[in-house]
Amino acid sequence: MKKMLFLMGFMMMLSVSCNKELETPYDHPFFYIHQNNASEITVLATRNESVNYQVYFSTKTQFEPVTLTYEIIAGDGLKAGVDYEIVNTSSSLLFKPGFVEMPITIRWINNPIQEGKDNTLIISLLSNDKDIKIGMPGPDHKQSSLKITKI
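The structure corresponding to this sequence follows.
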């Protein structure tokens, strides 16, 4: 009798758990940018080379190209052609089907910083032609921009 009651209880528990709705995993595409998982990084004033800052596209396989626009904002302590040069000739990136990362290339120029000034470059991801979210999932939209401080 005890076995029978145990078996009936087990079957009831099993049937209740089978009716529970399954949660759908987060499955929405989004764009983000970071360097070693950080949204704020530094670069030495003596650096004299080109650096690729990768923009990532987290998505299932896409069958249509997506164009992402971005802007680069320089603080008042940095001057284009003196402290840095933006190598990309456009303010957009074209993610063709199958592409999940694209670079924004900045050539850093060896030049001392101006103390007391804003010696930052901020790469901000702005929008895209498919209305895909910018930044990591969640209310803060982390990694929607990358702040680079020249020190």
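The longest helix spans residues 2-18.
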